[in-house]
C-alpha cells in the first residue's frame, strides 16, 4: 500500500499556500495547447539518427583510389578525381535531377538489401570510345531524351561496370564483403522503378578528371539497404579507445597518401665531360659513352630501381630488374 504521509512538511505547505495566495507562485498556467509534439518513430529502421552514414566516406575514398587506378589502365591516360561526402535525400529528388540520356545500371550488392544504382556520365563512355577507336562519339552530348546507346557504347559500359564492381568489392571488403551483379540497364531515368519516390537514399558522387574534363560516377544505395549490416554503421560511442581512434586515423592517412602522385625519372647513362668540351658541342655532334648494364629509375630524385629500357606497343617502357631500396 502506498505511503499516505505528506511528502512536504507543515511549514513547507504553509509557505506554498502563501506563495499561491500572494501571486509569487503561478497557479493558472493551464495546458500548453499551442505546442505540438514532433512525431518521431523510435523503432523506424530508416531513422537517420541511429546510423553513422559518414562511415561510408572512408569506403568511398578507397573506392575512388581503386577506380582511378583501374580506369587509368582502361583508357591509357591518367585519371584524377575526388569524392563528395555521402548525402541523404529522397529517391524522387535524386532521380528527378537526372537528365536523359544517362548510363543507369541497376545492380545488386549482396548482402545489402534491395537494388542499388550506378550512374555513369555518358561523356565518360565517350572518352573511352575515343581512347579505344581514336574518334569521337555523340553519346552523352545529345539533349534528346530518347537517345539510345549503341552496341559499342553498351560494351564500353560493361567494361566500366566490371572495373566498378571490382573496385566496390575491394573497397567494401574491410567493412562488409560484397558480391555485385548487374540487373538491368536504361538510358532514361523515368524508366527506373526500383524505389518509391519518398524513400530515403544514400548518394555517393565521384568527380573524375579525364582528358582535362570532369566526368561523374554516382552510386545510389537505398537507405534500408544497410539494414543487414546496421551494426557496422551505428554511431560510435564515447568509450572508443585512443588506440582505436589512432588506428582509424592511420588507416585514413595511409589511404590518402597512397593516392599521392610521384615523378619517375629513367636515366640511361651519365656522362662526365669538361666545360670546354661541353661548350664546343654543336647540333648533330655525336657523343660516345659506354652503355651500362641497366638504366636507373629515380622516384622523386631518389634512386629506386635498375631496369631495361625497351618498348611496349607504341610506348617506351622500362622493365624493372633490381630494387635499390632496402625492404623493411
UniProtKB/TrEMBL annotation:
Role played: FliM is one of three proteins (FliG, FliN, FliM) that forms the rotor-mounted switch complex (C ring), located at the base of the basal body. This complex interacts with the CheY and CheZ chemotaxis proteins, in addition to contacting components of the motor that determine the direction of flagellar rotation.
Membrane-topology descriptor: Peripheral membrane protein
Organism per entry: SAR92 clade bacterium
Compartment(s) of residence: Bacterial flagellum basal body; Cell inner membrane
GO cellular component: bacterial-type flagellum basal body; plasma membrane
One term of GO molecular function: cytoskeletal motor activity
Keyword list, A-Z: Bacterial flagellum, Cell inner membrane, Cell membrane, Cell projection, Chemotaxis, Cilium, Flagellar rotation, Flagellum, Membrane
Example GO biological process: positive chemotaxis
Matching InterPro entries: CheC-like_sf, Flag_FliM, FliN-like_C, SpoA-like_sf
Xref: Gene3D superfamilies: CheC-like, SpoA-like
Chief subcellular location: other
Pfam families found in the cross-reference section: FliM, FliMN_C
Every Flagellar motor switch protein FliN-like C-terminal domain range: 256-321
Name the UniProt record assigns to this protein: Flagellar motor switch protein FliM
Membrane-spanning segments: none
Signal peptide: none
Family: Belongs to the FliM family.
